[in-house]
């Protein structure tokens, strides 16, 4: 069956945006690590390392988990003069990422 | 000369407003609207900054390939994402893949802003070559001089994108970070305000310069999202058909194809590299020679 190119383009647009809109309507949508799918602000919690997000700064993580910034920097071989206001996602390197930080914090928490 | 050739009808030449009311104009408007939206998101995010009380979306939150990169982590680590990705990346990736499954790589041809930028540069290059004879001679000298090796390279470079796809998705799964991000020209473009020279910025520069010479070099050779979308699109019931009875093999369709496909020799165009831009359909001067079809090809034949 032949399709008019205009119809094809319209179907492409409707299909693509429709899927996104459908997910949004179903509550499956979040554009920032600062809020959850309901729009509620995410706060770091010492009880859950998974609440650490890329936008959080060194000092926020330090204050929440009670770990000195200097300890975090040395544990991951990051420059000692790194400003505490640096976001986690901007620290990513071969020696550091959020997954490694979560594992490291968890290990510290479980140590007697 | 067969009787069928004599029966071929030439499409009426459209003039004025009617000449603008084509699916090609529609496609450009869609691409422009998406590019404008992403530009707006980027500017607002840069102006507000990360530490602002206003929660603004990073343009990276709308990148479908981020969804493919974070998918393994999302499933494996209980709904968490690798850095720079969010739930929106997964949703946009789903939209791209569902669209590909039903309508082939239409995302690449109709929506992708990086594809649009390459189209603009390539069309500008073609326009300059038409207007200025010395420029045309310069491009012709380069293309004719390098043609034999280029034809050879073009054939094999097209496989690079599958390597990029495997490397970036498995790398993200193994290391939990976007191993591709530093090399990604799209990421380099939307983060250009950071003024950091990354390999991605160099790839972006090469892509933009390359677009002066060939259509969509990034899409042809290296785009991992295009590779995934193209492979899934093989299952789509939509395809392009060249009607040999109506076709005069004038090669206008082949010259119009931004992906450099040999449309004029194909019967059905179902190749992975086709971005479904329908330029071949629009440019074809013969009525019914190039058509978009839907249905199972075995039945169609």
Q: In words, what does this structure look like?
A:
With 112 residues, chain A is mainly α. Chain A is built from 4 helices and 1 strand; from the N terminus they run βαααα. The longest helix of chain A is centred in the first third of the chain and has 21 residues, at 5-25. The termini of chain A are far apart. Chain B has 301 residues and is mainly α. Chain B folds into 2 domains: 24-232, no CATH class; 237-300, 2-Layer Sandwich (Alpha-Beta Plaits), CATH 3.30.70.20. In chain B, helix 4 packs parallel to helix 10 (160-175) and helix 10 crosses helix 14. Classes of the chains: A mainly alpha (112), B mainly alpha (301). At the A-B interface, strand 1, helix 1 and helix 4 of A face helix 3, helix 5, helix 6 and strand 3 of B.
**How many domains of chain B?**
2
- How many structural domains of chain A? 2
Query: Which structural category do the helix and sheet elements of chain A fall into?
Result: mainly alpha
Number of helices of chain B: 17
Strand order of the largest sheet of chain B: 2-1-3
The quaternary structure here is heterodimer
What spatial form of chain A do the alpha-carbon principal axes imply? elongated
For the biggest sheet of chain B, the summary is: 3 strands, antiparallel
Most extensive interface, chain pair and sizes: A-B, 39 and 49 residues
Low-confidence stretches of chain B: 1-6
**Rg over CA atoms of chain A:** 21 Å
């Amino acid at each position: 069956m032949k399709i008019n190119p205009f119809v094809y383009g319209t179907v492409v647009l409707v299909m693509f945006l429709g899927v996104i809109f459908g997910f949004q309507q179903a509550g499956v949508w979040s554009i920032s690590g600062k809020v959850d799918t309901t729009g509620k602000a995410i706060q770091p919690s010492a009880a859950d390392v998974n609440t650490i997000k890329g936008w959080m700064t060194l000092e926020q993580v330090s204050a929440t988990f009670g770990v000195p910034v200097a300890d975090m920097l040395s544990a991951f071989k990051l420059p000692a003069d790194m400003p505490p206001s640096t976001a986690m996602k901007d620290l990513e390197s071969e020696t550091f990422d959020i997954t490694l930080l979560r594992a490291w914090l968890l290990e510290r928490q479980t140590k007697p | 000369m067969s009787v069928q050739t004599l029966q071929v009808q030439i499409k009426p030449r459209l003039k004025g407003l009617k000449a603008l009311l084509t699916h090609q104009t529609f496609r450009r408007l869609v691409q422009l609207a998406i590019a404008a939206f992403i530009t707006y998101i980027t500017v607002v995010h840069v102006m507000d900054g990360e530490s602002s009380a206003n929660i603004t979306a990073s343009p990276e939150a709308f990148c479908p390939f981020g969804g493919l990169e974070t998918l393994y982590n999302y499933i494996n680590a209980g709904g968490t994402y690798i850095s720079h990705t969010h739930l929106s990346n997964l949703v946009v990736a789903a939209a791209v893949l569902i669209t590909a499954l039903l309508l082939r790589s239409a995302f690449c041809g109709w929506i992708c802003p990086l594809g649009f930028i390459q189209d603009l540069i390539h069309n500008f290059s073609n326009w300059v070559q038409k207007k200025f004879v010395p420029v045309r001679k310069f491009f012709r000298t380069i293309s004719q001089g390098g043609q034999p090796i280029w034809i050879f390279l073009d054939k094999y470079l097209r496989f690079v994108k599958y390597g990029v796809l495997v490397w970036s998705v498995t790398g993200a799964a193994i290391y939990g970070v976007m191993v591709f991000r530093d090399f990604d020209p799209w990421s380099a473009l939307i983060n250009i305000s950071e003024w950091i020279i990354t390999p991605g910025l160099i790839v972006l520069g090469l892509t933009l310069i390359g677009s002066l010479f060939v259509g969509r070099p990034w899409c042809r050779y290296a785009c991992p999202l295009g590779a995934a979308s193209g492979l899934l699109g093989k299952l789509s019931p939509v395809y392009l058909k060249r009607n040999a009875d109506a076709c005069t093999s004038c090669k206008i369709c082949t010259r119009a194809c931004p992906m450099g496909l040999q449309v004029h020799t194909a019967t059905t165009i179902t190749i992975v590299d086709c971005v479904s831009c329908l330029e071949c359909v629009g440019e074809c001067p013969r009525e019914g020679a190039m058509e978009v079809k839907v249905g199972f090809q075995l039945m169609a034949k």
